[in-house]
Amino acid sequence: MQLPEDRKYVVSHEWAKDEGGVVLVGITDFAQDQLGDLVFVGDFTPGTRLAAGETAGVVESVKAASDIYAPVSGELLEFNQALSDAPHLLNEAPFDTWIFKLKADNPADLQGLLDGPAYAAVAE
Question: Lipoyl-binding domain: from which residue to which, for each copy (predicted)?
Answer without folding.
Answer: 22-103
